[in-house]
Design a protein that fits this description.
The protein is α+β, with helices and mostly antiparallel strands. It is built from 5 helices and 11 strands; from the N terminus they run E-E-E-E-H-E-E-E-E-H-H-H-E-E-E-H. The structure holds zinc ion (2 copies).
Length: 236
């Protein structure tokens, strides 16, 4: 496409007919070719040649017409369906009654609908906000689980087995294996042999870690996995 079009007197660009070449004039600090045009509505305007038929298609009346041009009933804008022309015109076009997919009815001016500013009764926005909230909550849960503690192999000082999550119950004369997850302690079993308790704890660590990662990925609840959280005296 040539950069400079040839604009002749009599040419028509949408509603504008070129009346006269006014020559080069300073516009916005730069010299531009300007043309005097007659709009279909009867007004005369001076337009920069480069804008003719592109950004400028009328004296301005076209924009106003678009603004007040009625939207047919039943037209959809995202979640909104135009159900009634309320017969009121403002600076932003006509006012319409719209029904949202969620069931709410709202009023909107036509301009906001046409330009895509209005897409729902507000439910779309609150859903997006909720989603953001969920993501933030999940991120907090991950922090609350404290991966470092799960993976920390160093036993606390009051532990009598030398293995984190395994302790000796003198009254039962057994090794008890447990694991902590998101503020809860889950019972894994009691064992005669320290090695069995250690092995069970190790397997649980791996499973729990995997389950946690999976739950995180699925966005599912991390509750209700296979470990019994009640302190019982099974032989497992
Ligand atoms: Zn006009
Ligand atoms: Zn809605």
């Amino acid at each position: 496409m040539p950069k400079h079009r040839t604009i002749n007197v009599g040419d028509k660009y949408e509603r504008l007919t070129v009346l006269e070449n006014l020559g080069v004039q300073p516009r916005g600090g730069k010299p531009k070719s300007v043309y005097r045009c007659q709009c279909d509505c009867g007004k005369t305007v001076d337009v920069i040649g480069a804008l003719l038929g592109k950004h400028v298609k009328s004296c301005g009346c076209l924009n106003m017409d678009n603004l007040v041009r009625p939207i047919p009933i039943g037209t959809r804008y995202s979640r909104l369906e135009v159900i009634k022309d309320l017969g009121v015109t403002t600076g932003k076009g006509k006012i319409y009654l719209c029904k949202c997919d969620c069931g709410n009815e709202i009023m909107s001016d036509g301009d906001h609908l046409k330009q895509g500013f209005k897409k729902s009764c507000g439910c779309l926005h609150s859903e997006q906000a909720k989603e953001r909230g969920c993501r933030a909550l999940k991120a907090m849960l991950v922090q609350g689980t404290n991966i470092r503690r799960i993976t920390c192999k160093k036993p606390p000082s009051n532990n009598n087995s030398g293995v984190r999550g395994v302790h000796w119950r003198p009254d039962k004369e057994r090794w008890i294996a447990t694991i902590g997850f998101q503020g809860k302690r889950y019972y894994l079993g009691s064992f005669e042999e320290l090695k069995d308790a250690k092995d069970t704890r190790k397997v649980a660590e791996e499973k729990l870690h995997d389950a946690f990662v999976k739950a995180w990925k699925d966005g599912a609840s991390t509750q209700g996995h296979s470990y019994d959280n009640k302190e019982s005296d099974g032989n497992g």
